[in-house]
Structures are given as C-alpha cells and as structure tokens.
Amino acid sequence: MQSRWRSPVSQSVRPGATPPGAKPPGTARPGGRTAQNRAAVVGATLSELAEHGYERTTVESVAIRAGVHKTTVYRRWRTKERLVTEALEATAEVQIGVPDTGDLALDLQTLARGVRSVLMSTVGSAAVRALVSGAQSSPEVARVLRTFWAGRLTKVIPVVERAVADGRLPQGTDAIELMKYLAAPLFHRILVTGEPVTEADADRAATVVLVAGRAGVFV
Amino acid sequence: MQSRWRSPVSQSVRPGATPPGAKPPGTARPGGRTAQNRAAVVGATLSELAEHGYERTTVESVAIRAGVHKTTVYRRWRTKERLVTEALEATAEVQIGVPDTGDLALDLQTLARGVRSVLMSTVGSAAVRALVSGAQSSPEVARVLRTFWAGRLTKVIPVVERAVADGRLPQGTDAIELMKYLAAPLFHRILVTGEPVTEADADRAATVVLVAGRAGVFV
Asked: Which residues cross the membrane (chains A, B) (predicted)?
C-alpha cells in the first residue's frame, strides 16, 4: 500500500517559522490566510520538486503554482534553499510524528514506518530522490539535504533519551547515530537497490536498531 | 586515509566475461593483450564516470581515453550498460575480497571495510554517486546499479552460509538482506548526510549486523 502526501493545511504555523515582516502571531491563526498560503506554497514546492527536480524549481514557479504573488514567497522564505528545506520538513512533520508510547520497540517501529511513509509517498519519494540526486553535484542541494536531516534527527532525540533515562537503552547511546541506522536501510532500498519499502522492511529496520542499541553498539 | 583505485591489470580475465568473438581463453593469459585492454578500458570507464557522470560517458569517449579502437570496446562489451557494470564490478572485486577467516565478526568487518574502500576511493565514490544520481531519472542507469548490486551480493552469500552451517548464525538467515544492512549505513553517509565513511563507521556497521544477525532479525 502506498502512502499519500497529506496536505498540512490543518497544521498551525510554528512560531519559529514566522519570518520578520509577517503579521504578529495572534493574527496567524490556524486555517487563516497565512496558514493557507504556507500550505499552498509548501505543496507547490513539493510538486515542483517532484516534477522538475531541484535545479529547475524556482521561487517564481512555486509562486505561480501556489497561486500567490512571488513577493509573498520571497518575503517569507527569501531563498529557494529555505523553501525546499521547510517543504521537506513539513512532509516529514506530517508523516513522522515523534512517538511516546512508553514502549521503545513500538516508538522505533512508529518512527521507521513514518520514514517509510515519506519515502513511499509520491511527492516525498520524488523530493528525496531529486535532492539526493542533486546533492551529488550541487553543494547548495547537499546543504539543503543536510539541514533537513539535522532538523529531523534533533526531533527524535527525545525517544532515545527517554529510553536511556529509563534504562531501556545503555547510558551514552548516541541518538543521532541510532536514528541514521533506522533510516539508512529504507533509503538504501529506494535509492540504490530500487526496491519498494514495505511495512515489514520498516519493522525490520526498527528491530535491528533495537537489538543493536540494547547491545550497546551505538554507545 | 583514503583508499585509491588500484588497477586490476594483474587480474586474470574471468571466463564468464569472455564475449563471443573474443580469442579463445587459452590465448587470453593474465598480463596478455586482452587483460591489458580490459584493464585500460575498465580504468577509462571509471575515470569517465567520475569526471562526466553516466549520461555523458560514451563507448567512444572510453575508447579514446583507454587508447584502444572503439570497435574493440564494442566487440567485447556491446553496450555502455555492460561496460559500466563490469567496471564497477572490477572496482568492487579488487577492493572487496570475500573473506574466509573462520571468524564471522572479522569476515563482516572485512566486508564492511571493503565497501568503505570503494565508497571512499575517488573513482569508486564518483562512480557510485553518478550511478545513484542517474538511477533516479534513468531506468537504464537504475538497471546498471541493480545488476551491480545483485552481482556483489551473490558473491558474499558464502560468508553467511558458512556461518549458518557452523551455527554461528541462526538457520534461515537471509544473506542478501544481511549484506544490504551492512552496506546501507555506509552509503547513507556519502549519499544523504554527506559525511565521510571512517573505518570506525565500517566496523560499527559490521557489529550491528553481527548482533542483529545472531538475534535472528534476518531470518
């Protein structure tokens, strides 16, 4: 079963994402004009990436597709790099929640299935492929990809930290490294071997890091 | 320390690689004209891939670089696809031996370090990047990459099969899946996070699959 990109239109605007010059937070209520514009621009960015790749995606083409004035896009995001980073983060935010079930195995499985959802969605897959492909020749694209990764990895640190605090993982476990091992086999399938990522694949990736993590391999 | 591409000039020609129309095997002795041509063409293919990427590498440009007539290249390899596949396999053959030390942990470490050598060598890294990048938009490149992988994975099956026979890994362990897990975190570093692959990274990848393999995760 293939997951689909879900519009982030119902998400509230994150305070950290409010740019200088935007209306004060009180007026940017969920579902308001600002949130609607953001959703439209994020969706348009992902569609442009999916159809045309990173190089041929421009702030102008995104604005036209989103049906907003290009100065609106420039004012808020300033560069294509920031636009693409935020769009990718929005995909991941919607599809990869940060779980806290109290069960480490289940938390890791949920994370792995979230990564799978991004990689198997039409738009997420295309965006990741476009970026990984572009990153091999463009330092700018490589930076977007690294920024995206750094952002995602930071958010999942609490899952590992809670497990360490509870004694479910050894002291000193490197959360970032563990997360990379969770994601790498799933990326490898779509990027290198050209295989789909099934739920069973996601679950295996979660089990591998659970077993290795408990054995202290990520300390 | 960065590994370097070593010329396969001293390698004998594998029987399976002898095309129809080539001289009979008895005349293709190691170090002879055929082996020299093969080494030159393989080296030229890797250099072309590294400098120009898959799309702009042609049988003609490889022949010029190798200093052989293009009909020689066409007669033996017929298509760019076969040429690139064999060139990549030659890199991996030289740099990833199939170890048999009697110690599973050491065998896996040797394999992981071999993958690292390919990924960190100037030419191997460029070739892998060019292919992974190209595979995202070209079905032909994707096929080259899959063929290369299938070939490599088949060769390391014995390492896992011996371990299963000896009871060092559980019955039914999937050798192919285990090898993918060994390689994936190393590919992820160079392709996605843009980090170098150190020996410590290779050793960690080996330990992760050893621990997970023993726990029966690849059954």
From this structure: none
